[in-house]
Amino acid sequence: MFLLLVRRDLALIARSPALWMPVMFFVLVAALFPFAIGPDARLLARIAPGILWVAALLAALLPVETLVAPDLEDGTLDQLAARGLAMEMVVAARILAHWLGFAVPLLAALPIAAVLLGLEAAAFWRLAAALALGTPALAALAVIAAALTAGLRGGGALAGLIILPLALPILIFGVGADAPGALRLLAAASLGALAMAPFAAAAALRQD
Amino acid sequence: MTRRRGVASVPRVSPEPLIISDLACRRGDRLLFEAVSARVEPGGALHLVGPNGSGKSSPLRILAGLLAPAGGTITGGGARGFLGHDVALKPRQRLGAELAHWARLDSGLARLPAAMAAMNVAALADVPCRHLSSGQRRRAGLARVLASGAELWLLDEPTAGLDTASAALLAAAMAAHRATGGMVVAAVHGDIGLADPERLALG
Prior knowledge:
Largest interface: A-B, 22 and 28 residues
Order of helices and strands of chain A: HHHHHHHHHHH
Distance between the termini of chain A: 26 Å
Shape of chain A: elongated
CATH superfamily of chain B: P-loop containing nucleotide triphosphate hydrolases
Radius of gyration of chain B: 16 Å
CATH class of chain B: Alpha Beta
Distance between the termini of chain B: 23 Å
Largest sheet of chain A: none
Number of helices of chain B: 5
Strand content of chain A: under 5%
Number of domains of chain A: 1
Oligomer: heterodimer
Number of strands of chain A: 0
Radius of gyration of chain A: 17 Å
Shape of chain B: globular
Number of domains of chain B: 1
Helix content of chain A: over 70%
Number of strands of chain B: 8
Structural class of chain A: mainly alpha
Helix content of chain B: 25-40%
Order of helices and strands of chain B: EEEHEEHHHEHEE
Structural class of chain B: alpha/beta
Number of helices of chain A: 11
């Protein structure tokens, strides 16, 4: 059942015109910074993890308006609930599908972004590991915010305001991945967000 | 209660009768209805009538488990198949793929071709849902209910946007469903071709 839902969500993402938006946004941000900062390679390499983390966070937010709201409006959630499916499972499937849809292409594009910012090999692998650990939490937070703002006009902007403070621990441990233990703390924060997200988002979607 | 118990052409375990007792519904501060009771036997049908805004959709949503009642209890009825105002068809997906997805969730892929034929949407299987007319979307939603294999059909304005021929298809499908012990609860203005339904007036 869970796999059916994930497969369905992925099929919808694959047909969506916004499929490549998050990863293109990510690469474009990486391409813009050298122009904005100037050709100081050492400075760029030093701030590259921070830039890429913020870009990843914003990329996770890009599709937030299409994550839950259409399903609420067109009756899909009603159909799922009428079948007795737990909203928590529906949301968990959505989180997994969103992660596969935005984070996997983003990780695939990471080498390009790293080259654009002059990141060295050791720092690149640290950043890749940190992003792999942290992006599931970003996907979970995006789905929570999408569920909270579904049905509101201009919900996307509000979703951003909801996510950004919640994403701070992920950002801090992710950027500081070279500090001892930071990756573990990042994994812990990520697991915490993942464990909480299905219940939080499902509670937001349940009608009175 | 008068019930027409048809001869089961398809053997099926008869579900428990649907018993609604003392149901109350509140939306915001407004009490839509209270002390509503009804009983639908297998093979029976319940017709919810009432003026616009009297809350005809709410009992359907309560029966489907989408809304918590303010009071009262609901027992029996078996699995629910729900058709609401919104048909839940994704615009970019082809109709056949959409219905197949829901049929897979209902473990009813084998029932789908017959259901699509019964609602005359089999020829539309390759059409993207955004190109469907509202009547076609309605028929597709009904085909999903047919394919679900649910004992209790909950239909909100099922004939809205349907032409006469399609309404006749719906009437035939409901009759066949009831003949095998299925139940139908519908909120509609006027007649939708249900044979001797129980009537429940709201508002």
